[in-house]
User: Fold these one by one.
Assistant:
Number 1:
Amino acid sequence: MIKKLLNISGIAFLVVVMISCGDSHRDTGRAYMPDMTYSRAYETYSSKEELEKRGVNYTGRPVEGTIARGEMMPYGLKNDSTGYLQSASIKSPVMRSTMNIKEAERLYLVNCGICHGAKLDGNGPLWKDGDGPYTAAPKNFMDNDMKAMAEGTMFHSVTYGKGQMGSYASQLTTNQRWDVIAYIKSKQFPSGAADSVSAPAVDSMTVAKTK
């Protein structure tokens, strides 16, 4: 009798184990916050039209007017002749005494040195005393006309491009562009003397807010 009961108990236990291992009992029940429990996955390069059909409002771009954390206010002057002239009055927000000169130098060498040269003399690898692939010599930052150029005008040119130089707004953040300009000025005037600009200095933040 005892042996029979043990057999029945063993069979019953095996049945319970087999039932508990079935897929029908995998549901964890209701989630208190289903949006966080079952997050919707997004494919970076998926068709936005397909997402719209599913009721998903996803553009792949940040909300208009947002500014990246740690970034400065957007540059306010337009890419036209008036904006170019007004840029001479913009004052750089970078203080030479507090700037990271090593990082500014690295940014210059990576983005500018190939044309303007490591010595800022306009003799980068793409020119190389006229033997390089470029047919027009890049600007020599050590020339008097470039030394006299205002920081704001340099920043405007780097932001929108000037002549054969394209815009670097997509390669360098606003902060980084100002750092590069500050590095150039530090090499032009190693003693700390400021370049002569007749227009009154205006902070770039003020310009951004007025536009």
Number 2:
Amino acid sequence: MSATNHHLLVLASTDTVQVVHDALDDLSELFFIEAETTEDALAHICTRSLAFIIMDPSLPGLEPQSIATALTGLPHTRIPPLLLITDDARRPDLYGQAPPLLIDHVITPIDSTVIRAKLLFFSAFFRQRIAMEQSIQELEIVYDRFMEQHQAVLSQTVAKKAMQASLSTFINQAQPFLSRIQAESTDDAMISVADVRPDLILINRRLKDGSGLHLLEKLVRLSTLSPVIFIVDRNHTDAGAAAVASGAQTFLILEHIAGMDLADTIQRAMAQAKMVHQVQGAMNRIELISRRDQLTQLLNRSGFNQTLAGEMAKARRYHLPLSILLTGIDHFKSLHDTYGHKTGDDILTACVARIKALTRDDDVVCRFAADKFAVVLPNTEANRARILAERIRLHIFEHRIQIGTRLLQLTVSIGSASFEGTQTPDDTPPTLPELVQQAINALDRSIQKGGNQIQS
């Protein structure tokens, strides 16, 4: 999902556009597109993937029915949610032309809290739709691989007799491997698994020092990637079912194990474990995508919150200092409106490059809002944070930035906040929201005093 997919189309008056912009200022991935005529609106609807649309049907030059018809003609997965602005308390007629979850309305005069809540719902709906599409694509790839493996297994059926002939050789080759990962006690088994990292683990229901289920539970907590086959006798098949419920790939009944069955079970267990790991990897990649800003490739606001929470917990546990910087590009909206969206993107990426050039490997640069960046500085006291902030300010101020054919003089305002790890037990350390609010307040003071400066 590229940054160009995060567009918000607004068909409304200038005052309404400003209210919406103020309400969504902290959603950095959303960019506003304004249209005043039906022709312009239809051009954007047909050529862009829109996060959602805000429309005032009474705006001169608009034909609401034509726009609604164009939306319903899109593929189902591309229909953006529609928020109507109306001065009539009655339900708008356009409700009958859109799915229930994809239409809502607000009544003028617009309450900024109400419109923000509705648009946040639409934004979450848009994110979930994109994430689901990516998840489906990932899972379709995994499914195709699974079907290829399945067809390969079917084609191998005719070669069963040849496999039977070589089975004794297979078992003789596997025996030294199996003996390496077997142990007489749970503790020895855990040590062996940690050292050897086996491709397969066989666990007997009865162990010298306890239950095989107990060992399985420990392996699950260890998050071992090795598939587990649980072995029971015919009088304890319920333990086999419990083992599968706890995380084993399958179980075998000791009295019924034959050579070919063992080989097939091992093959299926390892293939199943591989599938599980691929699916988990796909889901992990989707989660990572949801925490990244697509324009700058930095962590977004959600990623910033998670990173700062982790560093705050570490700082408190080990009595380490922690600082954050909030950097805002001065007059960014004016530059964006004057030179256009593409230049605005170029300014953002150029500033990110300059900030990252001055930070350490352990520091984390995030996109905090549309024109604001946060830097999390682990193990950094307030004075060192301010020194870095001054270097960032000068690095941007003293060098004009080449944007296309233009050389632009940019300045930034910076607010800093710190948690000192040397606080005494009687001191009350700031909570995570308080630390962030301190940095926001400091940034606001920098801007109010004219910008191009640092406040703490």
